[in-house]
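Researcher: I'd like a structural prediction for the single chain below. Treat it as a standalone chain; there are no partners to consider.
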Amino acid sequence: MSHFSALGFPIRSSAEMLAVARRVPASALYAQTDVGSYYRWETGGGSELWLATGLDQSLKAVVPHFTAVVRTKVRLMERVPSRDHEMDGALRIVVAPARASQAGGDLEEGAFPLLVDMPDFRRLDALALPVDVDLSIGAVAERVEHYASEADMRAAGVLAETESMIPSGLVGPDGADRVPRRAEAILYGTVLASGTRLNAVGVGSFTWARVRTQSVELEVVADPVLLPKPPVSGSILGGTFWLTARLATAWPDPITGRT
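Model: Treating it as a single chain, here is the predicted structure.
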């Protein structure tokens, strides 16, 4: 299983990844920056494939992404560039931030912090931080737990709250800062809706669910190997998830005009 397979791309090797990347049409050009370009290919069911290319059009990154309909109010606090590719990076955010209108207010105050990967990271270079925005956050399953009820969850020995979020990408089990930081969270939530989605390009299906967790609702996706059937409403879904996000607040690209 991989982040790709969780979005219906049956990619098992770098060669297969490059083969899919070559299918991205030129019309998928999404944004151009001072260091390169981003291509966004919408492949069905909310699944997307993003390419990042350098100024010489060399391929820098191939990244899957899930576009969630749910909007989450956050405060963007810090840019975290990738160690591997200059076009890649993440943002450290505060979810459901407290109002900090008064001078001296604590900008870090909110429900919890998270790190989220951004497929168009360098497109936001001119955005001044900190700033309050709406994000579209997709939670891509790396490990999944599913329980019919809280009683089943407790019987399995899980002590976490049924609706809880742990920023495991920022803080380790011992409470120390995680190094390096990752766009990851351990979450549990009540299933509100679910279904099976189809990636028309990858010709693969994936499982989708909308869950209510601590302070927010999120949309999660999983490889059917991890979650074979859509979980029923009212059940509890948990696990470890990779977080991929995009700015939902309008922020048009100066060249293409796209948001």
